UniProtKB/TrEMBL annotation:
Family (UniProt): Belongs to the phosphopentomutase family.
Protein name: Phosphopentomutase
Keyword terms: Cytoplasm, Isomerase, Manganese, Metal-binding
Cofactor binding summary note: Binds 2 manganese ions.
Residues annotated for Mn(2+) 1 binding in this entry: D15, D333, H334
Record GO biological process: 2-deoxyribose 1-phosphate catabolic process; 5-phosphoribose 1-diphosphate biosynthetic process; metabolic compound salvage; nucleotide metabolic process
Domain Metalloenzyme: 8-384
One term of GO molecular function: magnesium ion binding
NCBIfam families to which the protein is assigned, alphabetical: deoB, PRK05362.1
InterPro entries reported in the protein's UniProt record: Alkaline_phosphatase_core_sf, DeoB, Metalloenzyme, Phosphopentomutase_DeoB_cap_sf
Protein's gene: deoB
Species assigned in the record: Bombilactobacillus bombi
Pathway participation: Carbohydrate degradation; 2-deoxy-D-ribose 1-phosphate degradation; D-glyceraldehyde 3-phosphate and acetaldehyde from 2-deoxy-alpha-D-ribose 1-phosphate: step 1/2
């Protein structure tokens, strides 16, 4: 029988919800970035996050989020985490949470991808390639989408992260064909010549540039984890693991026993409600990507704030459903400040909110020196040995 302090742990990653420039933000040209702070400023005090507030979302900050004051008596424990991985992509952040930091920088392509790589993709697919530059996905689809519909070309683009994105209209190139092209592309960028974190299929629909919409058939083909993660160690120890959202993609299915694809943040919360009703001993890991994909990259602070308020409302139901032997962890994988320059991720601290109905105390967990402290705590709870990268804070939760 597995002896645990908590029977079930639920980890929610609010994709891109950073909480201020990290200590090394200058190395990434991100000094001044503050996703939560700038979203609050955009709302001029009208951002209302009562559930995140009582969990301590503003307590961990040097300056409160406008409209979200620090809680006098937070429900549980709060802090923030510093990333040690070489990049600021979702893959880096999630892998590090699961005790597998990315120490070697992956390849980035600020001037577009090299011809030899694109030639192989073109030859395999039988299609020409257009785009090939760092760009916002919505912008490049609006610009080149009608051409892609007429010619059947592939729109290939990148960003400030280690990603290669391929966009195509679903009526011109089927989702399955696009996936097949992305799978082949993935095989080309696993090193040693090129090592890219994610190849992303970006299907879209719509009759013209004024009505194009990217669909929920997005699929991330991630670099295979370079070692074992917390998910692997748990699954190998017969401890149940659940992945919701793009978790399965980020870890290439490794260590995930039960998985759910999200159509949206609210669809993800529906899946979480379902898993909360299940009886198991283990860890549920969920990513909610709308903050990042729909609002952060598009530099839309008002949409970002509304998505936070929508999540907060659903969070109230989650708190009500938690059992005494459940533990909830809420964090993020990086920042994507909609009030900052550019359209890329931002190097920020991420919040760490930890709560269980059984807690009798509350307080600060301080600034954790690596995202891996989260994974170390999960392993500690289930008495499983992992990579020993992080430092568990389980003993601090009372």
């Amino acid at each position: 029988m597995i002896m645990t302090k908590f029977n079930r742990i639920f980890g929610i990653v609010l994709d891109s919800v950073g909480t201020g420039a990290a200590a090394d933000a200058d190395k990434f040209n991100d000094l001044g970035a503050d996703t939560l702070g700038h979203v609050g400023d955009a709302y001029q005090g009208n951002l209302k996050l009562p559930n995140l507030q009582k969990l301590g979302i503003s307590n961990l900050r040097t300056q409160e989020i406008a409209g979200v004051p620090a809680a006098n008596n937070p429900l549980g424990y709060y802090g923030k985490m510093q990333e040690i991985s070489a990049g600021k992509d979702s893959m880096d952040g999630h892998w590090e949470m699961m005790e597998l930091p990315v120490n070697k920088p992956l390849d980035y392509f600020p001037n577009g991808f090299p011809d030899d790589l694109l030639d192989k993709i073109a030859q395999f697919s039988g299609r020409k390639i257009i785009g090939n530059r760092p760009e916002s996905g919505t912008k490049i689809i609006q610009e080149l989408g009608e051409q892609q519909m007429k010619t059947g070309d592939l729109i290939i683009y990148t960003s400030g992260d280690s990603v290669l994105q391929i966009a195509a209209h679903e009526d011109v190139i089927s989702v399955q064909e696009l996936y097949k092209i992305c799978e082949y592309t993935r095989s080309l960028v696993n090193g040693p010549q090129y090592t890219i974190g994610r190849v992303i299929a970006r299907p879209y629909i719509g009759p013209d540039k004024d009505h194009f919409t990217r669909t929920a058939n997005r699929h991330d083909f991630s670099l295979e984890p370079i070692g074992k993660t917390v998910l692997d160690y748990l699954a190998d120890s017969n401890i149940h693991t659940v992945g919701i959202g793009k978790i399965n993609d980020i870890f290439s299915g490794n260590g995930i026993i039960e998985g759910y694809h999200n159509e949206s943040n609210m669809d993800g919360m529906d899946h979480l409600d379902h898993v909360l009703q299940e009886s198991f001993t283990g860890f549920c890991f969920m990513n909610l990507v709308d903050f990042d994909a729909m609002y952060g990259h598009r530099r839309n602070p008002m949409g970002f704030g509304q998505a936070l308020m929508d999540f907060d409302e659903r969070l109230g139901s989650v708190l009500d459903q938690l059992k005494n032997d459940d533990l909830l962890m809420i964090t993020a994988d990086h920042g994507n400040d909609p009030g900052f320059r550019g359209t890329d991720h931002t190097r920020e601290y991420v919040p760490l909110l930890v709560y269980s109905p059984s807690m009798k105390h509350h307080g600060s967990l301080g600034t954790r020196q690596t995202f891996a402290d989260m994974g170390a705590t999960i392993l500690d709870n289930f008495n499983v040995t992992g990579n020993s990268v992080g430092k568990s804070f389980l003993a601090d939760l009372n």
